[in-house]
Write a sequence for this structure.
C-alpha cells in the first residue's frame, strides 16, 4: 500500500482545514497516511522568526485570515480565531505523539475543532484532558506519558526530521521519493503523487 | 461583463505560470481581465525585506524552485532559472504599462518566456527591444515612452494601489467586491468568485 506522511502543527492555521480533510482524501486514494505532529517554532527560529510570520508580516496575516474564512466557509468548517494566535501547541503535540497511531486522527480533529472552530486555548491540561476523554482515552495516564522524557525526545526528533526533510512550513505532505508538498491547497496534488506509479519518470519530465 | 484584476510582477517566479494561463481561464469564464503589472520591491520593503523572501528564507526558496518545476512540468512550460534571481524588473514593468491594453498580454508572455523559460535577463533594452518587435511594436518609441515621467508615475501609483488593496505578494487576483486571491494556485478560485452572482451572500456564509 502506497503511503504519505502528513506533517502538521497544532498552532498552524492552514493545518486546521488540512487536518480535517486529509484522512478522507487519503482513503479515496487507498493511501496509508502517517500522521506527523511537529513544532514549527524551531523551524521558524532557523529563519530568524520568533513569532508566526502571520504576525511578523501583517499584510500576510490579514490575507491569511480572510483566505481561511473562505476556505472554511466552502468546507462548512466553523472558524473562530484563538486568542492569542498562535497558541502554545507544545503540550498538544506531545499528547498527539504519545497516543496510539489509531487514536491520533480523532484527537487531532478534536484539538483543531476546539482551537480554530471554537477559538478555545489548547495549551493546558484543562482543555486537552476532556478532549482525550471524548475520544475514549483516560486523560491522567496519557497526560503523564506525554511529558515523559522519552516522549519529549521523540517530538524533538520528529521536528528535527521535518527540518532535515526541508519542510518550509506547515502543513506538508511528504512522499517516499522525497517530494514535499506544502499547504492545505497541495493535499490533493501530494496524495496523487504518492499514489502514482512512475514517480521517477514524472520527476524527470518536470 | 464581470471583471477581475490580475496583479503580477515580472521578477516573481509564481507569476510566470499564472500569467501564462490567466487569459485562457478568464476567457473560459467570460470574464474581462484587467492586467496590473506592479513592483513587489516597495511592498516587500514595507515588510522589512530588501530581497526576495525566497532568497532571505532558503528553506522557502528551495521548496519554491522544486514546486515550480512540478507546476511547469504539469503545464508543459519550460523552466530555466534566471541569474540573478530575482531579476530587476523595473524596465519591463514600465514597458508593460506603457503599452496599449491589447498588447500587454502578448508582451507579458514574451517577457516571462525569456526570463523563466529561457533564463535570460530582462533588465535591459537589449532583451526587451526584440520582444517588442516580436509582438509588432516599434521598440524605440515605446522604450522612450516607458521612461517618461508620466509613465514612471503611473507605475508608482499602480504599486501604491496594490499595497492599499492589501496584496500580500504576487501574483494576485482582485475582484470588484474587494476580495484578494494570492497565488498561481488561487487563479481558478478567484476567477470563479469574480464571475459568481450573490457574492455578498457567499461572503456572509464564509
Amino acid at each position: 500500500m502506497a503511503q504519505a506522511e502528513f506533517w502538521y502543527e497544532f498552532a498552524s492555521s492552514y493545518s486546521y482545514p488540512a487536518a480535517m480533510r486529509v484522512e478522507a482524501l487519503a482513503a479515496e486514494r487507498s493511501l496509508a497516511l502517517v500522521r506527523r505532529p511537529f513544532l514549527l517554532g524551531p523551524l521558524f527560529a532557523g529563519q530568524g522568526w520568533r513569532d508566526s510570520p502571520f504576525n511578523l508580516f501583517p499584510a500576510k496575516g490579514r490575507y491569511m485570515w480572510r483566505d481561511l474564512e473562505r476556505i472554511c466557509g466552502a468546507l462548512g468548517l466553523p472558524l473562530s480565531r484563538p486568542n492569542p494566535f498562535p497558541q502554545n501547541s507544545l503540550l498538544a503535540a506531545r499528547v498527539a505523539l504519545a497516543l496510539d497511531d489509531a487514536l491520533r486522527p480523532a484527537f487531532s480533529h478534536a484539538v483543531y475543532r476546539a482551537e480554530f472552530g471554537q477559538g478555545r486555548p489548547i495549551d493546558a491540561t484543562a482543555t486537552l484532558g476532556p478532549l482525550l476523554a471524548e475520544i475514549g482515552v483516560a486523560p491522567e495516564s496519557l497526560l503523564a506519558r506525554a511529558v515523559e522524557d522519552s516522549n519529549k525526545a521523540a517530538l524533538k526528533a520528529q521536528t528535527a526530521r521535518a527540518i532535515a526533510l526541508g519542510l518550509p512550513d506547515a502543513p506538508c505532505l511528504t512522499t517516499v521519493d522525497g517530494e514535499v508538498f506544502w499547504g492545505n491547497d497541495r493535499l490533493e496534488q501530494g496524495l496523487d503523487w504518492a499514489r502514482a506509479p512512475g514517480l521517477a519518470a514524472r520527476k524527470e519530465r518536470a
Q: What stands out?
A: Residues 58-75 of chain B form the longest helix (18 residues).
